[in-house]
Design goal:
Number of helices: 4
Strand content: under 5%
């Protein structure tokens, strides 16, 4: 597995998690204070598109890391739970880093 697979996943995990927090704040303003209806719609649509990209990258990482279905499902769903993607991303990195270290060839010093 290439390091770029993990990097793509990490980037999208952070972006998706931040956008979900922004969406939650917009929802509080929309339903709690009656303002920001249009902004909430735009943020929700942006988060939806970013979440689809996150799903593709997480599925790609999971298939290359050969995760069982339950673990893959948890990683995919973590993009819909506020702040969960931050914690799941850290766990995924700790588990995938050794796979990357095993796959990288040793560099020969001149």
């Amino acid at each position: 597995m290439k390091r770029s697979v993990l990097t793509r996943y990490r980037l999208m995990a952070y972006i998706t998690a931040v956008m979900l927090l922004v969406l939650c704040a917009c929802m509080v303003f929309k339903y709690g204070f009656g303002m920001g209806k249009d902004l909430t719609l735009v943020v929700a649509q942006v988060h939806g598109v970013l979440y689809i990209i996150y799903l593709v990258f997480a599925f790609d990482l999971g298939s290359k890391a050969r995760w069982p279905f339950g673990k893959l499902l948890w990683v995919l769903v973590s993009g819909t739970i506020p702040t969960a993607a931050f914690f799941v991303e850290r766990t995924v990195v700790r588990e995938v880093e050794p796979l990357l270290a095993d796959a990288e060839p040793d560099l020969v010093k001149a």
